[in-house]
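FORM 12-B: Structure-to-Sequence Request
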């Protein structure tokens, strides 16, 4: 093995791109044709003889570098033969989604159709669901795989009935999101991206949820009534104690009220309004019929002129 090929092989493993160098290798653009051919030969040889490939077993069921979203792992629940089809009610939604786009641009519906498929399948996307979306949109399945593996709101693994997504962007970091994560981890007995044994909760993270004034906060995706109902709610102004109360309410099958959890109204200051305490005056209009003050002033001027003329 040349040093150049060996380096390319290690780089491939470190980037967690692919382990099984199948003929339909979809990331060939990252490497030259020569490197790809070499990697395929090495992988096939290692799989055939159950050997280590650069110190990592390719036949081990616990390959850490294949956990990433770019690599499909065949399971009983998710494989090429696992069937998927939209329900009758969801097919009506499919038609409404497709109607929003020109006939020649059905691929524009890939993202909303993936969301619909994920909601129907209790929070995750099977290979069959992605293939069905490709069939509906008249595109190659790879075009759908690219979307499903790029956007973090698509789950390629089974999640719990309640997906707890903690915001970790700067304002929430400053306001203590790490403490929330630690509290959830200890309370539920799981780490980030894991699911509880009872299948109720999955712990995840999310980038900015757009309610920075109310940090720290989480979003909870509720798949407990899938495929008939799905909710995605924000819970804001959290403390570890309040967050655990919300989690236990979901465990009991209750639906806590979303929004601020400290009595705040929307994004108003905790102590109440400090500005805009009077009705807005609106735009300044010089037409007397539309501006009462201008009308009153003009009437006073006309009355003054009448007195002078008298």
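FORM 12-B RESPONSE
SEQUENCE OUT:
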């Amino acid at each position: 093995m040349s040093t150049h090929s060996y380096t390319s092989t290690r780089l491939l493993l470190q980037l967690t791109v692919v382990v099984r160098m199948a003929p339909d290798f979809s990331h060939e653009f990252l490497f030259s044709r020569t490197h790809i051919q070499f990697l395929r030969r090495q992988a096939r040889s290692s799989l055939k003889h159950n050997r280590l490939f650069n110190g990592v077993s390719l036949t081990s069921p616990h390959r850490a570098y294949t956990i990433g979203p770019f690599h499909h792992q065949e399971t009983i629940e998710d494989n090429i033969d696992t069937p998927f089809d939209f329900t009758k009610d969801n097919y009506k939604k499919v038609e409404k989604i497709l109607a929003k786009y020109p006939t020649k641009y059905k691929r524009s519906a890939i993202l909303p159709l993936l969301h619909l498929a994920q909601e129907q399948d209790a929070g995750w996307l099977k290979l069959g669901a992605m293939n069905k979306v490709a069939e509906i949109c008249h595109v190659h399945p790879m075009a759908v795989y690219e979307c499903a593996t790029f956007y973090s709101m698509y789950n390629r693994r089974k999640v719990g009935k309640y997906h707890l997504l903690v915001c970790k962007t700067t304002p929430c970091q400053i306001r203590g999101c790490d403490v929330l994560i630690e509290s959830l981890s200890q309370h539920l007995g799981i780490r980030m991206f894991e699911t509880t044994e009872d299948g109720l909760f999955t712990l995840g993270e999310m980038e900015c949820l757009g309610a920075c004034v109310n940090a720290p906060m989480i979003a909870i995706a509720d798949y407990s009534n899938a495929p008939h109902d799905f909710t995605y709610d924000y819970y804001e102004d959290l403390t570890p104690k309040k967050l655990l109360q919300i989690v236990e309410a979901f465990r009991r099958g209750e639906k806590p009220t979303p929004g601020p959890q400290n009595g705040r109204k929307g994004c108003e200051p905790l102590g109440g309004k400090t500005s805009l305490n009077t009705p807005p005056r609106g735009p300044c209009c010089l037409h007397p019929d539309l501006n009462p003050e201008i009308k009153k002033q003009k009437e006073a001027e006309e009355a003054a002129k009448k007195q002078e003329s008298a």
